[in-house]
Design a protein that fits this description.
By secondary structure, the protein is α/β, with parallel strands linked by helices. It has 10 helices and 8 strands. The longest helix is centred in the C-terminal third of the chain and has 18 residues.
Length: 270
């Protein structure tokens, strides 16, 4: 019996593709636990690029979701998708068309306008670069420079949270808490007001780590997903968080966006 594979969604754009990616991710939450393989196809500039995309999608029986603002490219992609009987979703075309009619004004049809190169944009880029540099305890000096410091055991969404918050212009460093490794001294010298501890239910963590092992093709009985090991890590992490006297959020049943919203709300309300 053939192994069932996840549906493939190609997110095509004449810009970076972030809008389409965000929409698809938001929609797929409604189909949990169904997973999809998402392939970003950015900066489509001509028909040749569209032809390549269509042929690839046809071979893989994929769905094309696109955010093309250049009318000629948008029309050509729709034409080719219909020709090859491909499922497609135009995210921006209907909205732009309706607004042009209502406003009696033609849109600019200019890709990439969602990211003007202003001070706000460069702050976001700087925050993303910061999150990458100081991710998962790679360089503990980032703890002293960060706006927010996340602490928690492995698989509590520290990295996704760091990147999400970076896109909101927060400089985030995250520190893994492991019983065998002493936390960096810097962690105990910064203000507790900028530290957020991430707590998780042991059973939930067991499921997440087991799935991670499965995805990596590793044995399910590995120590990483062992219940006793998990309880030991969580107890250790809780003790560290108590020492830090920091804000603690239970991420057991929260999406990254929900946890990030709580953190942002807390920091902005201080």
């Amino acid at each position: 019996m053939a192994e069932q594979t996840n549906p493939i969604i190609y997110v095509a754009s004449d810009s970076a593709g972030e809008t389409g990616e965000a929409v698809v991710r938001a929609v797929m939450v409604q189909f949990y636990p169904q997973q999809v393989d998402m392939r970003i196809v950015p900066f489509l500039e001509n028909r040749a690029g569209i032809d390549k995309l269509v042929q690839t999608a046809k071979q893989r029986d994929g769905i094309i979701v696109f955010t093309l603002v250049i009318p000629e490219l948008r029309d050509y992609l729709v034409e080719q998708a219909i020709r090859y009987q491909l499922a497609y979703i135009d995210l921006l075309g209907p909205i732009i068309g309706s607004l042009e009619k209502k406003l009696q004004q033609e849109s600019r049809h200019q890709p990439g306008m969602i990211h003007p190169l202003d001070e706000d944009y460069f702050k976001k880029v700087e925050a993303v670069e910061f999150a990458v540099k100081y991710d998962d305890g790679r360089d503990f000096s980032g703890v002293l420079q960060a706006d927010i410091v996340l602490v928690g055991v492995s698989r509590t969404s520290k990295t996704p949270l760091s990147m999400y918050l970076a896109h909101k212009k927060f400089k985030v460093a995250n520190v893994p808490l492991v019983p065998e490794i002493q936390p960096p001294e810097q962690l105990f010298t910064v203000s507790k007001k900028k530290i957020v501890g991430l707590r998780i239910d042991p059973e939930k963590l067991n499921v997440i780590r087991s799935e991670r092992l499965k995805m990596l093709g590793l044995p399910q009985n590995a120590t990483y997903a062992n219940v006793e090991r998990i309880n030991k890590e969580l107890e250790y992490a809780n003790n560290i968080m108590k020492r830090l006297d920091c804000t603690v959020i239970d991420v057991s049943n929260k999406a990254v966006e929900e946890t990030a919203s709580l953190i942002i709300e807390w920091f902005q309300g201080r």
